[in-house]
Every structure is written in structure tokens, then in C-alpha cells.
Amino acid sequence: MLVVEQNANMALSIADRGYVLQTGRIVLEGKASELAGHEELRRAYLGR
Fold first, then answer.
1. Helix/strand/coil (H, E, C) string of 1-48?
2. Angle at the Cα of 14 (from 9 to 16), degrees rounded to 5?
3. Distance between alpha carbon 31 and the CA centroid of its chain, in Å?
4. Is residue 15 part of a domain?
5. What is the Cα Rg of the chain in Å?
6. Number of domains the chain is built from
7. Domain containing residue 42
């Protein structure tokens, strides 16, 4: 199942894996738990 969601925290909390797209390209992928702790992703998309 593919979920497209603006609320990254919520999406990562229910997902097994995640993909971050930028201008139509996958720039980051991995286990949701690992992505939630990724520093660059947290700053850019999670507001932390």
C-alpha cells in the first residue's frame, strides 16, 4: 500500500518503510524507524 501524507510523523508511525521524494526522485529510503531518526530528514520535514 502506498500512503502519501503531509504529516511525516504520523506516516512514519504507521509505516514499515519510507521513501522521501524530491522533485520526483527518491532521495532517501529505509525503515520507518531509521528515517524518523535521520537528522537531515528531521530538520527538513519533521520540524525538529
1. CCCCCCCHHHHHHHCCEEEEEECCEEEEEEEHHHHHCCHHHHHHHHCC
2. 105
3. 9
4. yes
5. 10
6. 1
7. 8-46
Are 4 and 10 in contact, with CB atoms under 8 Å apart? no
**14 inside domain:** yes
Per-residue pLDDT of the chain (48 residues; tens, 9 = 90+): 888 888 888 888 999 999 988 888 898 899 998 988 888 777 777 666
Domain presence at residue 1 = no
8 A C-beta contact, residue 19 and residue 5: no
The answer to whether residue 3 sits within a structural domain is: no
Residue 45's closest CA among 10, 2, 1? 10
